[in-house]
Amino acid sequence: MAKGHFDILLLLGRPASGKSEIIDFVKKLNPIKRSEYYHLGELKEIDDFPMLWTWFEEDDILSREMGKTRMHTYPDGMFLFNYQWDLLIRRMNMEYQKQLRDTADFHSEYTTLIEFSRGSEHGGYKSAFSNLSDEILKRAAILYVDVTYEESVRKNQRRFNPDKPDSILEHGLPMDKMEKLYKEIDWQDVIAGNPTHIMINNIPVPYVVFNNMPEKTDSPDKLAQPLLESLDILWKLKNQ
User: Fold this and answer.
1) Which contacts of 119-122 are long-range, i.e. CB under 8 A and separated by 24 or more positions?
2) Shortest CA distance to 123 belongs to which of 95, 81, 153?
3) Distance from the CA of 4 to the CA of which of 80, 116, 173, 231 falls in 20 to 30 A?
4) What is the pLDDT of residues 111-126, one digit of tens each?
5) Domain assignment of residue 20, yes or no
6) CA–CA separation, 71 vs 73, rounded Å?
7) In this structure, is residue 3 part of a structural domain?
8) What is the C-alpha separation between 72 and 97, in angstroms, rounded?
9) DSSP assignment of 125-170
């Protein structure tokens, strides 16, 4: 891992927990401050939401415009197969490999931010983690943004802009999908008995839980110090 910043930060949590707001905050930081205080280099993002949204758009074109069979989802937007959730993880592995391919000595300058949510209904974090590449796991640290299901629902409804359903910061899920996909999560099961590291595919990956209740990600002033403290703890765990 390059001295001074994380190679890979996995940013996890329920939908609308504050993950995208954290990314927006660190992207706007002065690069020197971001590196020295938050241990983040120049940023490259990998988010599975644009990938799955492409599936929705393709199916819409196929069914509505071309009269063809949908390839990825049912008309209600649910995936045809549960393994598509793990396919998205494999896609993120591939995107990371492209970053390494396209930039020599990539991590001397860059931190890759990998963002996703998982619910127990579609395999949870246990399944998602098992599909991450060893190359990612060996370099990764996890920041889990913790909110209750009720808070996730509240913020999901607050941020949703029906005119921009494909927007990272303004997309939202209808209530029936929120309940089915994300009411139950397995995060506590995954970390049980492991206060600082999760063993994934025999690789220890450090994690820190960022408590976003009461909400801190709605204001840069409220977010700055707690995020700094959480990332500093995580940095020390990664470098033990």
Assistant:
1) 119/181, 119/182, 119/183, 119/184, 119/185, 120/184, 120/185, 120/186, 121/180, 121/181, 121/182, 121/184, 122/79, 122/82, 122/85, 122/181
2) 81
3) 116
4) 999 999 999 999 999 9
5) yes
6) 6
7) no
8) 24
9) HHHHHHTS-HHHHHHEEEEEEE--HHHHHHHHHHH--TT-TT-TTT
For residue 111, give its domain range: 8-238
Using alpha carbons, select from 92, 8, 103, 13 the residue that is nearest to residue 47: 92
Q: Say if 1 falls within a structural domain.
A: no
223-to-26, 35, 226 alpha-carbon distances in Å: 10, 17, 6
CATH number at residue 76: 3.40.50.300
Residue carrying structure tokens 């889990």:
144
Rg of the chain over all Cα atoms, to the nearest angstrom: 18
Tokens of 144: 């889990």
Global pTM reads 0.92
Tokens 């996909």 — which residue?
181
Q: How many domains does the chain have?
A: 1
Residue with tokens 């492409």: 54
Does residue 2 lie in a domain region?
A: no
Residue 14, token pair as written in the block: 């329920």
Residue 213 is encoded by which pair of tokens?
């209740």
